[in-house]
Design a protein that fits this description.
Elements lengths: L4 H17 L6 H13 L3 H13 L3 H15 L5 H14 L3 H9 L4 H18 L7 H20 L17 H6 L7 E4 L4 E4 L3
Antiparallel strand pairs: 1-2
Length: about 200
């Protein structure tokens, strides 16, 4: 391996491209080359590449660190939303649902918005049973989760049902017992948001 930085960087890039062609992205050697590239040229792209490699190898902690660094280095650049979506995805896999929700809400670009809103929906649903002081309040989270599903579909997300999560939401009897009628505004305290009662 050449020691001159530019020559070394070129050699590492060539090795990575060769391994890409041979579908060796999850190998340990590939990971070492990615880390070498980050050391030689710590760009947002390099960190994103490293984060993707870590994610493919189920190293969620490292993936989270690398995607966070990629976002930091990218600033307001064109790949900000792509990097942010990937971080939200890792946080969701780590079961850091509040973090995943907040991160996903920061994705603004049209291309990634649908996927980000779906992460929000899934994060709300994943915590519904532990979020709220009553059974009704906990089940009401599914209405909010469904709001995000509908927004995700509106933003171009395909392959999801517009009624997803509604079967877990309060029914008319449960709502009646709480004095809540259809169309009423219901607060979801864990998320600081409101949703609409519907049966």
């Amino acid at each position: 391996m050449p020691q001159e930085p530019e020559a070394k960087k070129k050699k590492v890039n060539n090795y990575l491209q060769l391994m890409d062609q041979k579908k060796c992205q999850s190998s340990e050697v590939y990971g070492k080359y990615v880390d070498t590239l980050i050391m030689l040229e710590p760009t947002a792209d390099a960190y994103f590449f490293g984060g993707s490699y870590a994610l493919n190898n189920d190293n969620l902690t490292k993936a989270s660190e690398y995607f966070t660094k990629a976002i930091e280095l990218e600033g307001e650049g064109e790949n900000k939303d792509k990097y942010t979506l990937n971080l939200a995805n890792v946080q969701y896999k780590q079961r850091s649902y509040s973090s995943a929700f907040r991160t996903a809400k920061g994705v603004g670009g049209d291309e990634f918005r649908g996927d980000a809103l779906m992460i929000c929906a899934n994060a709300i649903a994943a915590t519904a049973n532990s979020c709220g002081e009553s059974t009704f309040a906990r089940k009401a989270n599914y209405w909010l989760a469904n709001d995000y599903v509908k927004r995700a579909i509106g933003a171009g997300k395909e392959g999801v049902s517009s009624g997803q999560f509604l079967s877990n939401a309060p029914d008319s009897n449960e709502a009646f017992n709480e004095g809540v009628s259809a169309g009423a505004s219901v607060s979801c305290s864990c998320w600081g948001e409101t949703t609409t009662a519907r049966f």
